[in-house]
Amino acid sequence: FLKKNVTIFGYPLSIFFIVVNEFCERFSYYGMRAVLVLYFKYFLKWDDDFSTTIYHTFVALCYLSPILGAIIADSWLGKFKTIVYLSIVYTAGQVIMAVGAINDITDGNKDGTPDNMTFHIALSMVGLLLIALGTGGIKPCVAAFGGDQFNDDQEKQRSTFFSIFYLSINAGSLLSTIITPILRAQKCGIHTQQQCYPLAFGVPAALMVVSLIVFIVGSGMYNKTAPSGNIMVKVCKCIFFAIMNRFHNRSSQIPKREHWLDWAEEKYDKLLIAQVKMVLKVLFLYIPLPMFWALFDQQGSRWTLQATTMDGNFGLMVIQPDQMQTVNPILILIMVPVMDFIIYPLISKCKLNFTPLRKITVGMFLAGLAFVAAALVQLQIDATLPDFPSSTEQQAKFINMVNRPINITAGKYAFQLQALQEYNRYDLSFDLTIDSGSTETIRLPGGTRNTIVIVEEADRMTNIKVSIKVRSKSKSNHIFFNGFGMTLNITVGEEGFGNIVSKNMSTYVDVPQGTAKFVIKNAAGSTCVFKREFGFGSSYTFIIPPNVTFEENCEPHIKEVEDIKANSIHMAWQIPQYFLMTSGEVVFSVTGLEFSYSQAPSNMKAVLQAGWLLTVAVGNIIVLIVAEAATLPDQWAEYVLFAALLVLVCIIFAIMAYFYTYIDPVKIEADFANLEPEDEKKKNLEMTKKDMVENHDEKKRRSSNEGKIVQTNF
């Protein structure tokens, strides 16, 4: 029912379907990606390094698959079918991710922890693989398909479309990075209420379904061009033929040619060879560029993990760690016009020749400075973090619930315990003696901080142990000890600590940052309430003493022990590093694409687009290598390492750029076009000469044969 050639304000109506499709797809991708590293860490229980590794493996696949998508679209299916089919794959991946994040699927004992984590990991990996194939495969097709909707006389409208298209990308990215972390922070679940990763992945999956439907609805209006062969394939074949031909003609007696690609002249015309030379010249400059992306894409991994150890309370609003990524698209919207209309004109007025390659060099240097800023912030954070033990030892704190001092011998430590003894490091097992009682061997998990409560039952000392291994960074993590003479029930908001038997510990419960209201109820139905203000990431043990009185406010009776201090470094300190990185991105990325297009032949811009995306993939692979191989004990040292590597690469790129000679592809192609008639004349002349020689030889051969026949007759 929709017809082609329908226009609104001079624009094809079909492009509005494409713009809406792109907005929904980018919302889906960036929304899922915003919470991905926290999903790995807190749901799948992976450590920071492994979470970072899998995150960057996924991003690398997303930027490798565009090459496959471009080849499929141009050589086989065409852009429309490629977008539809790979969007279906994409949608399936998003749905699988959402299903894999539902912990109730395998939570048979209803304790809030999946019983079969392998099942969830398998679904997550399959989902991410399908998403990588889908989002990467359609990436080179959608913008080009939008450009195909315009006629040759609509150059101005086409240019405006690409601006709107880019705006839709940033709008989708910005909104999803704000909304998805909010969805993740919600509570959901059948058996237990936990952070709602199924919702955080489910909404992007729904947006991907909307994206696919909107795109298909506009099918009847699209201008669909048939696949005409992929230029990347032709370029690769030309390069391969030149290499093989040179290898077969490697004898020193064979004359050398001016350029190694000239060995393809036997099969390919000179114009194509000249175009490939221009492309390779730019691709050679791409070699150092992946290092920039290695730093840039850590905004979604290392920088997000850094934010989990910081205070996100901005007064009027509380920022989640994964929402700090929104600073990047916000600053892009500000920095692009600032650079174009203020910074660059000022530099031009100062008579400075700020060439594209110099801009790229400055962009890389700014990214290096961003990681220096991140290292400085990390040093401040490390000074406030608790000193957790290594995996071969643990820490223990003792709390005395007996009405007199007691003597403790724990491993190599001996002390009199009045009320509280600070943490000490111990081996994984140690001997514990209380007063003159019998010795007990205590075995605690490695890498944990433990609280051991000493109680007295029937004139016998006993101890109750509880450990903290993973600190909940964005919430407060608390536990209660019931020293009262009967079972107590404790709730905070919708969360419950359950029924706590006398002289026993509750389980740990995550409590959101802010003011929490605890309600304690005894078996007789009497209640008391106390309130407490919590910062991000703190951990407390609350002790309910035997003499607590159940009245409206029992706060004076509750004793608290601070196990882990709240995050004290504010998230706002990340803004300078985001500002430097975004400034580097604007100078580096926008200029890089502009430079690449200005130096590329008209029919090979897609090749350079694929090469540019490939640098992003290689950059993420570099992160994998460094994260796994460096094994630096401190995160700030890793930031400094990345900054140093980028500065080194920046110097190398500056040297390469110094020797680069700018070209005009249009002029070169025009020169070849003018030379073609002369070449054709030469070829025709050579063919004529060849035909004349062949005819002459044929006549001689016939004359010779006739002579032989005559002689035989005689």
Verbal overview:
Pfam families: PTR2. This is Solute carrier family 15 member 1. Belongs to the major facilitator superfamily. Proton-dependent oligopeptide transporter (POT/PTR) (TC 2.A.17) family. With 714 residues, the protein is α+β, with helices and mostly antiparallel strands. The protein is 54% helix and 16% strand. Strands 13, 16, 17, 20 and 21 form a 5-stranded mixed beta sheet that branches. Strand 1 and strand 2 form a beta hairpin. The termini are far apart.
In short:
The protein has helices at residues 14-34, 36-43, 48-77, 79-100, 117-147, 155-185, 197-217, 231-248, 270-286, 290-296, 302-307, 327-349, 356-382, 575-599, 605-629, 635-658, 665-713; strands at 7-8, 11-12, 187-188, 194-195, 393-400, 406-410, 413-417, 420-427, 429-434, 439-443, 449-457, 460-468, 476-482, 488-492, 495-500, 504-505, 509-511, 514-522, 527-534, 539-544, 559-564.
- CATH third-level topology of the largest domain: Growth Hormone, Chain: A
Shape estimate = elongated
Question: From the coordinates shown, what is the CATH architecture of the largest domain?
Answer: Up-down Bundle
| Total domain count | 3
In CATH terms, the superfamily of the largest domain is MFS general substrate transporter like domains
Q: Averaging pLDDT over every residue, what do you get?
A: 84
- The share of residues in extended strands comes to 15-25%
Uncertain regions: pLDDT < 50 for 5+ in a row? Answer: 683-690, 706-714
* Number of strand elements: 21
Helix content: 40-55%
Structural Rg: 34 Å
Annotation keywords:
4-stranded mixed beta sheet, 21 strands, Growth Hormone, Chain: A, single chain, 17 helices, disordered C terminus, 5-stranded mixed beta sheet, alpha+beta
